[in-house]
Amino acid sequence: MATYVYVGAAPAFGTDARIPMGGLYRLDVAAGQWESLSHGLPDKPEVRCLVTHPDAPHVIYAGTQAGPYRSDDGGDTWTALTLPGKERLVWSLLLHPRDPQVIYAGTQGTTIYRSRDGGRTWHELSPPEPRGMVKMSFPCRVIRLAVDPARPDDLYAALEVGGVMRSPDGGESWESCNDSLLEYAEQPRLKSRIVSDTETEGMMDSHALAVSPARPGTVFLANRMGLFRSEDGGRRWTEMEIGRFSPLTYARDVRVSPHAPDTMYAALSVAAVSDAGSLYRSQDLGETWQRFDHDVSIESTLMIVAPSASSPDRIWCAARRGQVFGTEDGGRTWQQHRLPGGVEGVYALATT
After folding, report:
1. CATH number reported for the structural domain that contains residue 252 in this entry
2. Which of 52, 60, 88, 179 makes a 20 to 30 Å CA pair with 103?
3. Edge to edge, what strands does the sheet with 112-115 contain?
């Protein structure tokens, strides 16, 4: 069976409109060849999230500007999964780890949709705005969703730019997880303001969440100011002090290995738009970190990490300006590719 890497791109805030941004692309790893995937997708697709089915890698879900789509043939053709509400632009997708028929889709504002039948029908969830949510020059979005594998009703949502929310009942009710993060924002070194009127902006600028089965109730957060950990379901947060190990601390992604629950990966860069990035790995649930992307020069902000569910040695990454690279042998060697046509604006990545 061929090994594929899927990459989604979309226009990014504040970038050059003359640069091509958008589309969904499939890389045949063995052949080193790209294909543009479009059959059944909206015209000029903007793809901001991708998820593969854990038990059927040929089944893929994509979040687009027109809602979620599903492919049952590895991306050759796509079918729309129509959302019922007014929000259509999908920023995050989550297949429940215990029942992949249960799907969550995060959109603009704090709107989240839930399906219990594989995406055929959806129920709109409308969590209230959490304390500390920042008014930006772009709409807030639910940029990542995560479920605690050991506590399947505990659902977490990372908001850009609004911190973190938690639901203890699969999305029926929600509570803010921001009090402790806002306390950190009072420290001068953790203040950051770019396009809002508050210096809490940096701590509320969430990018990714992860929960490991090795430590139920512990949540890992990647945001503009670094990596943070909560050991009580988001009530209190502790800074993980990634700066002890990496000179780059802008955290765009954090992932737990599907094969080793103590192993984590973090995408670290200079800023949202930058000329450098780095991939770090921890094998002790974030106590220590080591640079992992050996012999790779990452030329822009590292956006996303995708450990393969089928092989513990396969980890792929993608940077904002279209650089895609990965290892098939656990980090001993790496290969690099560029998105075709000079496409930039990478948001999404998945691998078989």
Report:
1. 2.130.10.10
2. 179
3. 92-95, 103-106, 112-115, 123-125
Q: How many domains does the chain have?
A: 1
- In the structure encoding, which two tokens stand for residue 307, read together? 């450990």
* Residue at 141: amino acid letter: R
Cα–Cα nearest to 113, from 103, 100, 99: 103
* Single-letter code of the amino acid located at 102: V
pTM above 0.90, yes or no: yes
CA torsion through residues 352, 78, 55, 165, sign = positive
Range of the domain at 97: 38-299
Whether residue 6 is contained in a domain is answered as: no
Q: Tell whether 329 is covered by a domain.
A: no
**For the residues of 158-209, what is the DSSP string, one character each?**
EEETTEEEEESSTTSS-EE--HHHHHHTTSGGG---SSSS-TTHHHH-EEEE
Tens of pLDDT, residues 238-252: 999 999 999 999 999
